[in-house]
Design goal:
The complex is a heterodimer of chains A (260) and B (385). Chain A is of the alpha/beta class and 260 residues long. Chain A has a single domain, classed as Rossmann fold (3-Layer(aba) Sandwich), CATH 3.40.50.620. Chain A contains six helices and 13 strands. Chain A has a nine-stranded mixed β-sheet with strand order 11-10-9-12-8-1-6-7-13, sandwiched between helices. In chain A, a hairpin with a 2-residue loop joins strand 9 (140-150) and strand 10 (153-159). Chain A is globular, with a radius of gyration of 22 Å. In chain B, 54% of the residues lie in helices and 15% in strands. Chain B folds into three domains: 7-119, Acyl-CoA dehydrogenase/oxidase, N-terminal domain (Butyryl-Coa Dehydrogenase, subunit A, domain 1, Orthogonal Bundle), CATH 1.10.540.10; 121-228, Butyryl-CoA Dehydrogenase, subunit A, domain 2, CATH 2.40.110.10; 231-383, Butyryl-CoA Dehydrogenase, subunit A, domain 3. The radius of gyration of chain B is 21 Å and the shape is globular. The chains are: A alpha/beta (260), B alpha+beta (385). At the A-B interface, helix 5 of A face helix 1 of B.
Chain lengths: 260, 385
């Protein structure tokens, strides 16, 4: 099974800082890591490869320094990596990003499965994986907690809020994974040495035949108008007393606020 | 401190630190309490390609030599002395095969050890043969193409857990020290069983057991080197692995200093952190200085071996002796700095103090090391006249 994993390099913090003037992430002085959910996707790919054979290719779209994130995945065991990087991709929203990645995937060619983390911990949109599936016009299964392959189809267990759902879909497909699916392996020494020496192949806008109307800031229909921290919620109120009294107080309050 | 390490050595160090943080430190107190063998930690080290560091590349290892291996052993021991010795004892058990094995023996045994699928162990010590290794009583009687082993080895690290054992036995009593031979034995060989598992003061999660041989018949192809070379195999092996004991000791000491430093910044008495008191500061300064001196001795000995220097018996003994004495002093002082808390099992320093003690005893007591060092010095001085 040939698998392409899409990863993102993100700042190593859950306390993301936003530049209030540009409404973009402040990346200076924050160390970068592979998005944790994407590490789960890489681990899933490696496990599937161990079980069914094939090849694991990892791609990322980002600035040249995102090559470090790709090296991390080589150290884990990825066979091949591509950095999709071009000035024309700067400022992409999820539409432009998923278009660009889908073009890169077409360029790479053969694949049976595309894996992504369910979302990135910086943007938290969870849109790029599904977006890639749409651009490639193939099935998508999100929030996977278990993936089994059976001949030319997949059996995927999805982690939903109330229940788990088992679905089947034909290959090729896009699957996004949640963190409960596995615990990503640590790199190995041989892997780290291979990663250090590895040449990171770059795919430019021209290489992937991208339509520049769909890439970068120009190809991004989303414009972020404002980003702000919502005010903290109030502390709530606990009603005390006998049950009968509380019921009266409660209904009064609800009526007051025109809820009932 | 810049130790002038290569990129590969830095990778080894950082990788072991990561494994120590994720897989060893969270479990070390539990393993110390129960004595459970730390397979989980060894598996993680194996998956990271760290079990074959010292094994040549053609036999599946990393060919990282003694310094790379010492750095790994130091970092594992910094987290837990018990895991550290289990990890390093496999090196001790397989070094005789690297040094004296035939091509066939190397190909047969080393790849599985390098991959971490099998552990190795070294069997020399007996009830009546500790510092006086020449007193061993285990016999290997030749019968045609076979040797019949009888006797008991004692306090063998990784005993019962390892698959591959290098054992020294007397094949010809009439020849005295030249009558000993080294053999490779596999777990499961008929007549080869394990005695009781020892209940120890420190390094409690490591396995220390007897190897029992009762008419254990092995083919002559299991002989390591030539007949009569047993003591040479043992001595050359121990010379090679002695800096590793030094590395374990440096690691245990560093782990204790880490804890003492952390505590002295947090613990407030008389309205200020105890680290602001000169009495504590001077202790910390002495501990750090001793550790750096010990580390320098261990690393320089390892570098000598890696550079192919022939005669390193003296620095290897000095490194083991000094580093283990430093470990004992530093861990004792760490307990002192942590005071009552240091004496309690909630903090790891009392375990480190117990773990440190063995480094002064095994692979040649520090008294034996001093004998060796003095003997070498006198010999050298006499030869100049």
């Amino acid at each position: 099974m040939d698998i392409i994993v899409c990863i993102k390099q993100v700042p190593d913090t859950t306390e993301v800082k936003i530049n209030p003037e540009t409404n973009t992430l402040v990346r200076e002085g924050v160390p970068s890591i592979v998005n944790p959910f994407d590490e789960n996707a890489v681990e899933s790919a490696l496990q599937l490869k161990e079980k069914y054979g094939g090849k694991v290719t990892v791609i990322t779209m980002g600035p040249p320094q995102a090559a470090e994130a790709l090296r991390t995945t080589i150290a884990m065991g990825a066979d091949e990596v591509y950095l999709v990087s071009d000035r024309a991709f700067a400022g992409s929203d999820t539409w432009a990003t998923s278009y660009t990645l889908s073009q890169a995937i077409k360029k790479i060619g053969r694949f049976d499965l595309i894996l992504c983390g369910k979302q990135a911990i910086d943007g938290d949109t969870a849109q790029v994986g599904p977006g890639i599936a749409e651009w490639l016009d193939i099935p998508q299964v999100t929030f996977a907690v278990k993936i089994d392959a059976e001949e030319s189809k997949l059996k995927v267990e999805r982690l939903l809020e109330e229940v788990n759902e088992v679905v089947e879909c034909p290959l090729p497909a896009v699957v996004t994974v949640v963190k409960q699916i596995n615990s990503p392996r640590l790199p190995s020494l041989k892997g780290m040495m291979r990663a250090k020496k590895a040449e990171i192949k770059n795919l430019s806008a021209q290489d992937i035949g991208a339509d520049l109307e769909n890439t970068g800031l120009k190809g991004s229909p989303t414009s972020v108008v404002k980003i702000f921290t919502p005010p903290p919620k109030g502390g709530g109120e606990i009603l005390a007393g006998e049950a009968a009294e509380i019921i009266v107080k409660l209904t009064d309050k609800l009526k007051e606020r025109k809820i009932i | 401190m810049d130790y002038l390490l290569t990129e590969e050595q830095i990778m080894i160090r950082d990788l072991v630190r990561k494994i120590a943080k994720d897989k060893i430190i969270p479990k070390r107190l539990e393993w110390d309490e129960t004595g459970e063998f730390p397979w989980e930690a060894l598996k993680a080290l194996a998956e990271a390609d760290l079990c074959g560091l010292y094994i040549p590349e053609e036999y599946g290892g990393m060919g990282a030599n003694i310094l790379g291996y010492s750095i790994a052993g130091e970092e594992v021991s910094r987290a837990c002395g018990g895991v550290g010795v289990s990890y390093m004892a496999s090196g001790l058990g397989s070094t005789p095969i690297i040094l004296f094995g035939s091509e066939e023996q190397k190909k047969k045994y080393l790849p599985a050890i390098a991959a971490g699928k099998k552990l190795a162990a070294f069997g020399l010590t007996e009830a009546n043969a500790g510092s006086d290794a020449a007193g061993i009583e285990t016999t290997a009687k030749k019968e045609g193409d076979y040797y019949i082993l009888n006797g008991t080895k004692q306090w063998i690290t990784n005993g019962g857990e390892a698959e591959t054992y290098t054992v020294i036995a007397i094949s010809d009593k009439s020849k005295g020290p030249r009558g000993a031979s080294a053999f490779i034995l596999e777990k499961g060989t008929p007549g080869f069983t394990f005695g009781k598992k020892e209940n120890k003061m420190g390094i409690r999660c490591s396995a220390t057991r007897e190897l029992v041989f009762q008419d254990c018949k092995i083919h002559k192809s299991q002989l390591l080197g030539k007949e009569g070379m047993g003591f040479i195999v043992a001595m050359k092996t121990l010379d090679m692995t002695r800096p590793g004991i030094g590395a374990q000791a440096v690691g245990i000491a560093q782990g204790a200093l880490d804890e003492a430093l952390k505590y002295s910044r947090q613990r407030v008495q008389f309205g200020r952190p105890i680290g602001s008191f000169q009495a504590i500061q001077h202790m910390l300064a002495d501990m750090a200085t001793l550790i750096e001196a010990a580390r320098a001795l261990v690393y320089s000995t390892a570098r000598m071996i890696d550079a192919g220097c022939k005669d390193f018996t003296l620095p290897a003994s000095e490194a083991k002796l000094f580093a283990s004495d430093v470990a004992m002093k530093v861990t004792t002082d760490a307990v002192q700095i942590l005071g009552g808390y240091g004496y309690m099992k909630e903090y790891p320093v009392e375990k480190m103090m117990r773990d440190a003690k063995i480094t002064q005893i095994y692979e040649g007591t520090n008294q034996i090391q001093r004998n060796q060092i003095a003997l070498a010095l006198i010999k050298e001085s006499a030869s100049k006249k």
